Amino acid sequence: MRVAVGVSCPPGISPVTPTNVSTFSPSVKWTEADYATFITGSQARRLAAAGVAPLVAQARGYLVIDDSNHRELYRQMGLQGRSRLGLQLTSAIAQRGGEGLMIPRFTPSAIQWANRDGATPAPSYHEVLPSLPWPDASGKRIASVTIPNFSGQLDLHPAIPTDWIDSDGTILICNDAAEADAVLSAYLLHAGTARAELTAVEPLVEGGPTDPTADLHALLARISEKDRILVLAASGFGQMPWSVTDLNEIRIKRRDILLAVPTETESSEFVHRNIEKFAEALKNKKAASVLYLAPKRQNDADDEAERISVADLLAAKAWPALIDALQNTLPAGSVVDAAVFKGAVRVSPDGHTIEECIAVNGGPSGTNSSLQWATVVRLGGRIKTMETRRQPTDKELRTGTFDATARSHDGADSMVEIEVSWKRDGKEGSGVITGPSTILHHQPQDWIMANAKIPNNVLLHPNWPPRKKQGEQFLEAIKTNRPEETKKRTRWQQMGWVPVDGSAPVFIVGDQVIGETVEGTTAAGVDSQDIPVADLFGVGVSPLGDDLKDEAVRESARQDLRDIMSTYITAGAWKDRSTAALVLAGALRPTIPLRPRATIFLWGPKGRGKTWTAKAMMYFWAKGRSTWLDQLPGSAKDTIAYIETCVSRTPIWVVDDLAPSPVKRQAEAEDGKLADLTRSIFNNSTKGRMNADMSTRKVNKPVAQLIITAENELTTPSAKERLIPAYLGYGSLAGSRVPTDAINELAKRGVPARFTGHFIRFIRQTAITTPGGWEAFFEGLEDRRADVQKSIEAIMKSTGKVTGSLERTSSLAADVLLTFEVLQLFAEELDMGKELRDLFDLETGMGRDIITVVASAQAENTKASPGAALVRALSALLASGGAHVINAQNPSAPPLEGTEDSDALANHRLGWSAGPGADGKLSPNGPSIGTVVTKDGQKIIVFEVETAFAKAQAAYPALIQHGQGTGSAWASIWDEKLSPASITRPTNSRGAVSNTVRLTSGSGSSRVRPSGVPITVDTILVGGNDGE
Description:
The protein is of the alpha/beta class. The chain has four domains: 21-327, no CATH class; 375-492, no CATH class; 535-854, Rossmann fold; 865-1021, no CATH class. Helix content is 33%, strand content 17%. It is built from 30 helices and 35 strands. 43% of the residues are buried.
């Protein structure tokens, strides 16, 4: 690219008419001999190479400083020889054969004041360029010092006429005095000054007829006003501050300004930034234009050409070469990091150390500050991974969309991986530290106390851990090192369906991710540290692959489904097909994205196949072919906190062997915790807990399909109503071991687990291809479950099996039968035969079997309703002699009159028994809890509300559990229609119903009106089991 295109040349830069054309040369070379009158040796060669004309150098006052004159020149410059700078400079210029070049520097204001006073301007300060630069504390070599200290003024050659300062001519500002004098020399030659006129004069007599300053002044005065260029020198663009007061001494307004760009502008962010600021200051002073001289060594159309200084350009070419070096804009510099400043820290480019940005004094007098990186910690590092550990939200599971704003409940659930690297003895090493993300709030020396896991090779490093200030610097540096490479991922603390950022949900089981399209995007977060058996969970992987569009894979899935149906369903491993259907539906229920609600309860005598049946369900979730053959994931002896955690993290969980206990409290505790768990699964709720600081703990919402095996039923009625029981007693399994062994062999071949993998992939693919995506598929499953529930209600009504809560009963059945609905879709997708597909039918297939089981169970549960339980307890209490009821007309006589054996037996069951006398007279047992009256020919017991309930609850807490209230229990007698049909429940004046009635018995003086809750004698005698 030709950088000069479109740039207008300011006056003085464009070609001028020389006053002495015959002496004009496109390139004038100077030799060491040209400086012999005042400088010799290496410093003369330096000036010749730089293109500084002898007269220009002589007029400024360049001198060689060495061992012969340094003391005298120190006095002229005001430098103390025994000062630190004096000693350093002496070592560089007066010892070991060294020398230096002393350059007087003059500020514009100093020259102007001297001119007004008619005096010779004195140097404002001096610059010394030693031939042997010395390193400073940071290692940078000091090649220039200024004496004394200065604030970064501009420099003007003392021979330049002062009227040029305020004229209209162009201003050209160079990086330093030597470059400015080289430019001034080339400018004079370009303006027509003869080479001979720029040679040094002899003898050197200041103010005399051969005064070099006066001679140079005269040469400059010959240049016409329109071609004048005021050449100034900065004190180094990379160091000088921008409170440059000399700009106030020079007219900038309406003048063209040229800035000679240093060679390091593109590589040094500091130089580039300072030139930008300086140019802005010039523009603020109303400069007509600010242009940049940025020459290249080769053809300026070559973008890769090396940058050279203006002095180097003019040493090789004539003045017009500047035209091609002009640019409207400053060449692009290196990217400036706003964080680079004194005291900033970073990880070194090689990644092995921590560096601090320090100020180094590389300018004159050690005062021109620049910045340099110095090693402070011999360890590097970066944040490799920021990991959030959490469970998916309900919204994520419904929409299938990853919520980037969701956060962990506890800070400990957010983890970080920090890679520490180093280089020792030429060998590179590294280690990865893992721990809670909160360790980034602490110094490295405290990480071990914050549960960070630090590998041994890091612990053994002699510089680990960085402490105090070094620890702070290490931490600050690694946080900003390569942040774009830090992986941010979510490690899911729950198996099952989880969302994926930018993709459809996938299924996690154990350490497997089913459906992942890009490896590593989803991380399984439940391991053996959380749940000891977590690594045993998994699904099989087909050797043919997992693409269900591949016919070989489809045929493999077909065969697996055939084998499962034949061994689990039709082979008769369980004599009751409803049990086999429940096993299959429950085992595959976790694959359905909707959360399971029904707990499967396998109960019966020990040794009858409960545990094996649970294993048959777990075979579908076996990572290895022998997994679950000899164990189940959980036990009834596990704590409730552990079980809650497991059912909130795994897709399926078994609580095995709830057996009777000789310790009453233990038996009650185990029964109670499983009852609570069953209710929480059905209600999608959990126990809220608090931390010591009164903040809420993370809750463990249940997501697993729960299976419980027990020798006895649960005693809590509300829990029994929320599970599906399957009784496994004598003869429940096949008489032969062949069918059961076939299921075990199928598991050893990995068929159930492999089919689960196929089924999960089918569900995911179906969700992806559903119009509307995952959310529409999820809502479709909800609609399908609702439709199944309605169908179940209709079937139950048509068969007359409606007992208790139809809503709850049908919802339990619909929850597990949703599995068969999706299995039927999969069978259709695999083009399976109608006979097999019909097995999943709701009305004629296995669906009807499960409906029958659920309906029968709920019918049995109605006997444990509050009203029925109270009647059973009252009946048992009276029959056992724990209490009695009295005859309203004759309290001392049995309630039932008659001599039949049946009457005697009935009275016995009402709390009366034969006394020890020979007459066999019946006498009451225990306290009286009610009165028997006759109404409309029907014997009715009016139970005393408080006494009867208290005695019944105390005697039979398993029937009337603690916490059951008196009012609700007696209200259930009316609600469940256990009271006499002939008696209407009373209401008060406000229309509110009452539990008690007052019945009249007898007349006249024998008239009594007992008050209480009425229940017929017949109902009590049969224990509430009327009709059985």
